[in-house]
Amino acid sequence: TEFSKSSRFLAILGKLLLLNHEHPLRTKKTRNYDREEDADFSDSCSSLQGEHEWWWDFLVQIRENMLVATANISGQLDLSRFDEPISRPILDGLLHWAVCPSAHGQDPFPTLGPNAALSPQRLALEALCKLCVTDANVDLVIATPPFSRLEKLCSVLTRHLCKNEDQVLREFSVNLLHYLAAADSSMARTVALQSPCVSYLVAFIEQAEQSALGVANQHGINFLRDNPDSMGTSLDMLRRAAGTLLHLAKHPDNRPLFMQQEQRLLGLVMSHILDQQVALIISRVLYHLTSSATAADVSPPSAGTNGSSSSSSSSSSSSSSSSATTTTNATNNGTAPAAINGQVTAEEFATPSTPSSGAPANDGAESSGGNRAEYIFSKMKEQQETVDDDKIRQSKQYYYSGAEHGVLICG
Predict the structure, then answer these.
(1) Which residues contact 17 (CB under 8 A, 6 or more apart)?
(2) How far apart, in Å, are the Cα atoms of 135 and each of 79, 129, 245?
(3) Signal sequence span per UniProt (predicted)?
(4) Longest alpha-carbon distance in the chain
(5) Is 77 left (phi over 0), alpha (psi -120 to 50) or beta?
(6) How does the average pLDDT of the chain come out, rounded?
(7) Mind giving me the DSSP string for 335-373?
(8) Which is more confidently placed, 225 or 298?
(9) Which residues contact 230 (CB under 8 A, 6 or more apart)?
(10) What Cα–Cα distance (Å) separates residue 218 from each residue in 214, 270, 275, 411?
(11) What is the value of pTM for the model shown?
(12) Closest Cα to residue 209, out of 168, 268, 276?
C-alpha cells in the first residue's frame, strides 16, 4: 500500500520498465542462406545485444524485480491520482511487455530456468488485470497511445483464450477482455473484430459446462454446489466471460458476428447444469440479437407522395385494426398469433406473456423480461424440434425466478 502511494517509487519504476529495451525499425534485406555466420542482427530487439556490457545482467535482474513489484502493488494502485509523467511510463511499459513479440518478453526469466512459467508478458498481464479493477485505470489504459497497440493486445488475449494447457493465461485474457469491452464501445468493436474471439468465449463457457456435468455425474450435485471450482474455473470467471459476450452483442456492428454462434448460445441457455446467472446473461445476449433482427423485419416502409402516403396510412390502419382483432381473438381462444411469411410478427414480439417481478430490468431496451423469455423459448422450440416440453417449461421457470448465485439444476 505504501509503495502504491509513493510518487518517487512509481517514477523510478516507470523509467526502469523499458530501460534500454527498444525495437528499431526493420529494413528489408536480401537473405544469403550460404553465409549464416555473417548474419546481421542489428535491427533486432535491443535486449539481445547488451551481453557485452558489464551492467547487462544487473539490468535484467532489476527489470524482473520491477515487474514483480508492479504486479504486487497494482491491486492498490490508482494511477489517476498521479500526473502524466508518472502514470504514462508505467502504462506504456506494461502494455509494451504484454504485446512484446521478442523472445526476451515471452520466454521465462533467465534466473528461473527453462521450465518456469513466469515471463515479462505474464507479469504485465497480471498487473494490467489488477489495475483494471479500478475504472479510472481502465480509462487510462485505453487512452494510452498508440491505439494499434491496443488492437495487438486484443489479438494476443484472443490467442491466449484457446490455450487450454495454461488456465491462468486464459483467465487473465477473460478478465482483460471483460474490462476493455465494458469500458468503451470502440473497444467492444475492436475486441469483436478479432475473428475467433466470440467463438473462443463461447467455448470457454461450454468447456466449463462439460466439466461441471462430469463432476456432477461422478460425485453428485451436492459436491458440485459445495465446490464450484472443481469444474476447472470459478463461477465469477464464467459470469465475466458471459458479460463480455453481452457487451460485445450490444454493439450493433458486432451482431452479425454472433449469428454463427446462435445455436451454441441457445444450447447454453437450455443447459441443466450451467449456473443460473450465467444462463441469464446469455439469454440477454440472445435478446439483443433477436431484437435487432425483429426490428429490421417490422420496420415501416418509407412514405411516398401525399396521396400514396394517405392511402398507405389508411390501409395500414385497417390492417393494424384487423391484426389487432386477430390477436384479440387468438388471445381469447388461447392460441398464439400466427407468423407472417415465417417471420415473427410485431404483436408476437411486442406483447409479453405473464411478466415476472424477478425478471431483470437492467437495460432500458430489456424492460419486458417476459417478452424476451417467450421469444427465446419460441425460437428454441422452432429450431430444436426434439426438445421436451417439460424442459422448456422448466427453463421458463428458472428465467422468471431471477438471478441467484450457485449451481442451477433445472431437471
Answers:
(1) 63, 66, 67, 70, 89, 90, 92, 93, 94, 96, 97
(2) 11, 12, 19
(3) none
(4) 90
(5) beta
(6) 76
(7) -PPPPBTTB--HHHHHS-SS--TTS---SGGG--HHHHH
(8) 225
(9) 211, 212, 215, 219, 223, 224
(10) 6, 22, 18, 17
(11) 0.70
(12) 268
Read off the pLDDT of each residue in 221-236 and give the average, rounded to a whole number.
91
| Owner of C-alpha cell 486464459 | 170
Tens digits of residue pLDDT in 182-193: 999 999 999 999
State the cell numbers at 373. Answer: 423469455
> What is the residue type of 211?
S
Q: What is the mean pLDDT of the segment spanning 338-346?
A: 36
Q: How far apart are CA 291 and CA 366, in angstroms?
A: 10
Contacts of 132 by beta carbon, 8 Å cutoff, 6+ apart: 138, 141, 175, 176, 179, 180
Backbone angles phi and psi of 342, in degrees to 5 = 80, 5
Q: Quote the cell numbers at residue 354.
A: 405473464
CA distance 15 to 92: 10
d(CA 340, CA 348): 10
The beta-strand segments (E) located in 245-355 are none
- Provide the angle, in degrees to the nearest 10, between the axes of the packed helices 262-269 and 197-219: 30
Residue 220's φ and ψ, nearest 5 degrees, are 105, 160
What angle, 0 to 180 degrees and rounded to 10, lies between the N-to-C axes of helices 135-143 and 120-131?
130
Residue type at 179? Y
Are the C-beta atoms of 90 and 14 separated by less than 8 Å?
yes
Q: Residue 234 carries which DSSP code?
A: -
Residue 340, φ and ψ in degrees, nearest 5: -105, 120
Residue with cell 454463427: 260
The size of the chain, in residues, is 411
Using a 10 angstrom Cβ sphere, with 0-12 exposed, 13-18 middle and 19 or more buried, the burial of residue 92 is middle
Domain ranges within the chain, ordered by starting residue: 1-25+41-145
- Cα separation, 53 vs 56, in Å, equals 5
